[in-house]
């Protein structure tokens, strides 16, 4: 939804192949909405385990490095027993 409305999106998760698949869906949604191209990649993937504090910091740093700011954070996570 965010991509379809023109937002830049950082996808964060542990499974890189799922992240890449979701990234392609986001890019397709942008294209369907006839949004203009951006000077930077509007959808990035960050492979990180957000149950670890240091990886949260790493993910946030990657977002700031790429987009310069963070406006909205949506957390959709599940906790699985390992």
From TrEMBL:
Name the InterPro entries for this protein: NAD(P)-bd_dom_sf
Gene3D superfamilies assigned: NAD(P)-binding Rossmann-like Domain
| Superkingdom, natural source | Eukaryota
* Descriptive protein name: Uncharacterized protein
Query: What is the originating organism of this protein?
Result: Protopolystoma xenopodis
